[in-house]
């Protein structure tokens, strides 16, 4: 018995079924990219509540809170997609400073922002260390194909 997927319909007579397309292999992401992307997504969730707080407490006008906050969220989301590049990580670091400065609007964000900046630095440092170790290990495996691991 052969397995068939939901899109595998028998070909009509006189037509040939096109061969299935080979999937493009997924790009291998480093640990640094993954950890920093997770951090940005968590910060996006927190920013939503900062917007609600800033608008509700009238720290700024409601349209300014929503427009500025949503713009910040969009920039963070876009940055999470370009963390594979060095400039993307630099933009992410700049966003951490901006996140910390939201403490000017919502005082508790000094504490929350400091926690997120600390986590960002930890993820950045440890991710780079582990990525370098993994690269060295892969290079060693490539140089020693007979090695039993």
From TrEMBL:
Sequence segments annotated as region (Disordered): 1-26
Keyword Membrane: yes
InterPro entries, per the entry: DUF4233
Transmembrane region(s): 31-52, 64-85, 97-122
Keyword Metal-binding recorded: no
A Pfam family per the record: DUF4233
Keywords associated with the record: Membrane, Transmembrane, Transmembrane helix
Protein name per the record: DUF4233 domain-containing protein
Source organism (scientific name): Frondihabitans cladoniiphilus
